[in-house]
Each structure stands twice: as structure tokens, then as C-alpha cells.
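Notes from hallway chat w/ T.B., transcribed later so I don't forget. T.B. wanted the structure written out for a chain they're using in a teaching module, and asked if we could keep both sequence and C-alpha cells in one place. Agreed to drop them here.
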Amino acid sequence: MATTSDIKNGLCIEMNNELFAVVEFLHVKPGKGGAFVRTKLKNMRTGKVIPHTFNAGVKINVQRVERRPYQFLYKDDMGYNFMHTETYEQIPITEEIINAPALMKEGQIAEIVFHVDTETPLSCELPAFVELEVTYAEPGVRGDTATNTLKPATVETGATVNVPLFIEPGEKIKVDTRDGSYSERVK
């Protein structure tokens, strides 16, 4: 068992039979009264961030998690199927724990976070940016380039991304997986 003095960013703890990751923390020592640790905790199952305050010296239950590289193979009725890049072990993952399932294409490398004790997948994170080919985009209207106007474009995974007017079908673009926005055109 660890104490509140061991809290750091990224630490995974168990609280109320749920797994939480420490997003940020602050040790506070007021002039009057006891010290405490103010934290923001992210629920590993739901992704919800909650504030929580621990009194100094309280025991916390630290849990071990591992990030493992997996390659996306295909989607079927069981969910999204991934293969470990080193052991070639295949596992199905549900859509709820993937951060951007609409931007995932076959062969995409992703990191899956596992709870070590139970070997259950907690989350699946794509890289911050993915390169996708535009399959359909309306033609840009001449004269609309004075402002930063965007148009919807369909990428090879079927997702719709708002892109600048100069993007044409067949071009490759870089998409931010955290919010699904256009980043830049790939040369």
C-alpha cells in the first residue's frame, strides 16, 4: 500500500472498486490544519474526470497498468479485432474503449492499456495524428477563400472531417484523433 506522498501524474489507483488515473495533483499545506492532496482523477472505464481530495498520509491502493502495441485487423460482430505486434496474440475490443473508432483503418497501430492483475483492456488509444485519404469532397467555390471556410469531406474510413476548400478527393490529409479535426495536407 502506498500513501498520498506517492501520488504522481499517470499513477493508476483503485478507489470505490473503480480504476482511476491521476491527471493532476497538488500537495497543499495550509498554515492552519492538516496537509492534503487535491487531485483530478480520470475514470479508466468511462473517461470521466472528477476532482478528489485526500488527507495527507492516507493509504491508497496503487494498481499496475501496461501499454502494449497492437495492430488493428478488422471489425466484426464481436467488436474490433487487434493483434499484438510482438506475440501475434489476437483480442477483440469493444467500441466504447477506443478513443476514435471512426478514424481507424486496417493495419493501424494503436496502444491498448491493460490492467495487469486481471488482464482486462481499459482503453485503446490511436496515435495523436493519422494519415487518411480523402475519398469524397465537394468542389471548392471560387471566391470563398477570403475567410477560413471549411467543407465536409469523407475519408477512407467513412468518417466525415471538415477540411479547407482546396482539399480535393484523392489527397492524403493528417487528422487529429483527439478531436477529429483536420491538421494538414500530407505531401
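Follow-up for T.B.: The chain has a mean pLDDT of 90. Might be a good example for the class.
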